[in-house]
Design brief:
single chain, alpha/beta, TIM Barrel, Double Stranded RNA Binding Domain, 8-stranded parallel beta barrel, 3-stranded antiparallel sheet, 17 helices, binds 3-methyl-2-oxobutanoic acid
Length: 504
């Protein structure tokens, strides 16, 4: 199988994504992860752009030992000099020089003619060759360049010494069949093309960057430029994980391979997301939170019988946790049954039916049913938690100029106990009063409230997680009065700690 070289550009093109910028420490951390991922070339930045950028690329170049490190330079001497300054300590430094070749760019950006551009391209490659044998040239906006001129530029830069010619679809304009034809025509019309590797650099303006990259590979490209999570200018670039997993998943058809250690894909994606602050959309292929989540009843049923019914890749292969079965109102009985088993519940048919009905009624109100929801349903519907403490009365005095004070009355084994307490807020005051009654050491780990129905009269649902004697317990309650819901949720957790259910 033919190897496809992975040219990773998150540190250069990815950094061009709006709002994204890496400091030298982050650049190095990412570069080291990319090295672990097994990319062939890391494009570490655009050294001439600022002294800080030059220093960052220099740092990456000095530390990375397993891959080639590249820097970007316009087709001008000062850029190429800066690039070399940054790269000279790298194991296999690559100077990546570029100039736009489409008439639109030549006219509006440069105000020059084609011949002048051709001359600049050739001179830049020759100049870069004085520093290193490893020179890559890109005719920017190649997809909108007149093909005959593109062939001439490519032939000339290869004659000047370019070892890689990278064909960019700078504005993400091409579609796969057209892009395939362009790469094929370059192979047929550039007489010395066998002396260089053809690369592609596809943008995602029409959502076709990965498809175009794969089409180019089928047409004979041997290097692809890509970024993790597809970050980059505007709509971004072809995403590494999509290209690599397409090659991996369809290797029999494509007859290509890469050196990527695919188990590192997921953690690399998360690192980039963390350091850029750019969230990965949930439905993003390969690395999105939902990429391996199944929800519809028919799908879940298929997956539970045999995962290959609806999974073409194993989440574990890319370093993600196993697939996720998301329980919603449409998940069906089989999914619920499977989840209950995993949670350790063995229910009789009658109990299962009851649980299923309660599940459906909650699922109609909530988008997703979590494990904790199911535990609560089962405990309330089937294994009722004995009410050691039950709320009789709660009253709170609060306001922006008042110290919140709560009075709580609770029944314990037929006896009514009343306590009052102040707190930082009304809920805190109620919980402190309850603590006085139970005399337990209760640590509130988590408190959340949300409305479960619409409108001003919505039910407020309170969920709490507490720690009592080193163990965690959860409680949930809903009421139109959120203070009452808060008190009852807290007491449910306390009651679980008092008499954990013996039936499961
Ligand atoms: O998008 C583009 O054309 C580029 C080139 C410099 C490769 O980033």
């Amino acid at each position: 199988m033919e190897k496809i070289y992975i040219f990773e550009s998150s540190l250069r093109e990815g950094e061009q994504a709006a709002g994204c910028g890496f400091n030298p420490k982050s650049k190095l951390e990412i570069a080291q992860q990319l090295e672990k991922l097994g990319v062939d070339i890391i494009e570490a930045g655009f050294p001439v752009s600022s002294p800080g950028e030059l220093a960052a690329v220099k740092l990456v170049a000095s530390k990375i030992k397993k891959c080639s490190v590249a820097g970007l330079a316009r087709a001008v001497k000062k850029d190429i000099d800066a690039c070399w300054q940054a790269l000279k300590k790298a194991k296999d430094p690559r100077i990546h020089t570029f100039i736009a070749t489409s008439d639109i760019h030549i006219k509006y950006k440069f105000g020059k003619g084609r011949e002048e551009i051709l001359k600049m391209a050739v001179e830049a490659v020759k100049y870069a060759k004085r520093y290193t044998r490893n020179v890559e040239f890109s005719p920017e906006d190649a997809s909108r360049t007149e093909p005959e001129f593109l062939y001439r530029v490519l032939e000339s830069v290869i004659d000047a010494g370019a070892v890689v010619v990278n064909i960019p679809d700078t504005v993400g304009y091409s579609i796969p069949t057209e892009w395939f034809d362009l790469i094929k025509s370059i192979k047929e019309n550039v007489s010395n093309i066998d002396k260089a590797i053809i690369s592609v650099h596809c943008h995602n303006d029409l959502g076709l960057a990965t498809a175009n990259s794969i089409a180019a590979i089928e047409a004979g490209a041997r290097q692809v430029e890509c970024t993790i999570n597809g970050i980059g200018e505007r709509a971004g670039n072809a995403s590494l994980e999509e290209i690599v997993m397409t090659i991996h998943t369809r290797k029999r058809l494509l007859q290509k391979t890469t050196d990527i250690n695919i188990k590192e894909i997921y953690s690399t994606s998360r690192l980039i997301s963390r350091l850029t602050g750019i969230y990965v959309q949930p439905n993003k292929a390969i690395v999105g939170g939902n990429a391996f989540a199944h929800s519809a009843g028919i799908h879940v049923d298929g997956i539970l019988k045999n995962r290959t019914t609806y999974e073409i890749m194993r989440p574990e292969d890319v370093g993600a946790q196993g697939h996720k079965i998301v329980l919603t109102a449409r998940s069906g009985r089989h999914a619920l049954e499977d989840k209950l088993k995993k949670l350790g519940y063995k229910l009789k048919d009658k109990d299962f039916q009851k649980t299923y009905e309660a599940f459906l009624s909650l699922a109609d109100k909530k988008r997703e049913i979590f494990d904790e929801d199911l535990k609560t349903i089962v405990e309330e519907e089937i294994f009722r938690i004995p009410e050691t403490y039950s709320l009789q009365y709660v009253n709170v005095v609060t306001g922006n100029k008042t110290i919140p004070t709560a009075t709580v009355e609770i029944k314990k084994q037929g006896k009514i106990i009343e306590e009052a307490s102040c707190g930082d807020g009304p809920v805190d005051a109620v919980y402190k009063a309850i603590d006085k009654i139970t005399k337990m050491q209760i640590k509130l780990l988590d408190y959340s409230i949300k409305s479960v129905t619409g409108g001003k009269e919505a039910l407020g649902e309170v969920t709490v997680r507490v720690k009592i004697n080193g163990k965690e317990f959860m409680g949930r309650s809903a009421s139109t009065d959120i203070i009452e819901a808060s008190a009852k949720a807290y007491l449910k957790a306390v009651n679980r700690a008092c008499k954990p259910c013996s039936r499961y």
